[in-house]
Design the sequence.
């Protein structure tokens, strides 16, 4: 018995593209990477207490002007 490929295939070639499906494994991987980054940052904060209290370091102040 021979099967017709077009009848068995779930994809049609008539130009109507189905909606894109979410890539759950990619989303899960991104969540895992974000969790690892956050855990690493927390570990670094615990290793170096007092440094980097969560605020960015201020930029260098401009040199004072010599105008009197």
Sequence:
């Amino acid at each position: 018995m021979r099967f017709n490929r077009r009848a068995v295939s779930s994809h049609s070639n008539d130009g109507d593209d189905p909606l894109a499906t979410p890539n759950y494994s990619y989303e899960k991987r991104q969540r895992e990477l974000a969790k690892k980054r956050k855990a690493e940052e927390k570990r670094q904060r615990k290793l170096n207490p007092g440094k980097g209290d969560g605020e960015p370091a201020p930029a260098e102040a401009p040199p004072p002007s010599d105008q009197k």
User: Anything to note?
Assistant: The chain is about 40% helix and 0% strand. The CA atoms of residues 10 and 16 lie 12 Å apart. The mean pLDDT is 76. The two ends are 100 Å apart (CA to CA).
